[in-house]
Design brief:
Layout (H helix, E strand, L loop, with lengths): L1 E5 L6 H12 L3 E3 H11 L2 H10 L7 H12 L8 E4 L5 H13 L6 E6 L2 H9 L1 E4 L5 E3 L18 E2 L6 H15 L1 H8 L3 E5 L4 H11 L3
Parallel strand pairs: 1-3, 1-4, 2-3, 4-8
Antiparallel strand pairs: 5-6, 5-7
Bound molecules: BIS(adenosine)-5'-pentaphosphate.
Length: 214
């Protein structure tokens, strides 16, 4: 099963992804996480992606499409995948559809998490992450340990460089201009389910699983 998780920055895609991936036993593929892991390693891909990410802009389509194609070719994605943060432009969506068609596969669901911009800014301003394992926290809703160390792995808790307010505002602008048209694109193909992304994490998870027919 190929599930696309669409939604603006801070909508809760990463927060919800683990439970969906676990339920359907499919890998969670987050392009943002892949870029951040490459950046941490100092790989050429990470260094290339950094200048776009830190400005809140999109990494060029050809780079992202190649990366996701390679990832979907891995054996653990043979039975499907949960795509988080990809596609993000109509060109990426077309490339994904073409790639899947060539493999005799297709997208099964596109879930769009909907949250108003004001709430997104609050969520992103308060987000904190573990530098090592990527565990997510929020200063108000899910506070990180007081000693600044991750409870799971002992890594350092930090704020993502692209969660500074000016960058967040640009990421939202980019989302509205380049990514939100994808909802209609998948809607025309009968794959879109809009999910209210406000409420508790558990409530939203129930809405998602219901939309997937679980
Ligand atoms: P990426 O890492 O994909 O970032 P994003 O889409 O901007 O999404 P976020 O990770 O910011 O938010 P999220 O929806 O996962 O929210 P989360 O669950 O963390 O991409 C980063 C960059 O990489 C892009 O800007 C771009 O440069 C590049 N990139 C990536 N993919 C690309 C592509 N396909 N093409 C081109 N470039 C690409 O939640 C946010 C906060 O809210 C957390 O603190 C969380 O605890 C809290 N929260 C979650 N749910 C709730 C709730 N129900 N109530 C209250 N708080 C909540």
């Amino acid at each position: 099963m190929i599930v696309i998780l669409l939604g603006p920055p801070g909508a809760g895609k990463g927060t919800q992804a683990g439970a969906i991936a676990e339920k359907y036993r499919i890998p969670h593929i987050s392009t943002g996480d892949i870029f951040r892991a490459n950046l941490k390693e100092g790989s050429p891909l990470g260094l290339e992606a950094r200048r776009y990410m830190e400005a809140g802009a999109l990494v060029p389509d050809d780079l992202v499409v190649r990366l996701v194609g390679d990832r979907l070719d891995a054996p653990d994605a043979a039975g499907g995948a949960l795509l988080d943060g990809f596609p993000r432009t109509v060109a990426q969506a077309e490339a994904l559809a073409g790639y899947l068609a060539r493999k005799g596969r297709q997208e099964d669901h596109c879930l769009c998490l909907e949250v108003p911009d004001g709430e997104l800014v609050k969520r992103l301003a308060g987000r904190r992450m573990c530098r090592d394992c990527g565990a997510g926290f929020h200063v108000d809703f899910s506070p990180p340990p007081a000693d600044g160390r991750c409870a799971k792995c002992g890594g350092q808790i930090h704020q993502r460089a692209d969660d500074q307010e000016a960058t967040v505002l640009n990421r939202l602008k980019v989302y509205h201009e380049q990514t939100s048209p994808l909802a209609d694109w998948y809607g025309r193909r009968g794959l879109l389910r809009r999910i209210d992304g406000q409420g508790s994490v558990a409530e939203i998870q129930s809405r998602i699983l219901a939309a997937l027919g679980a």
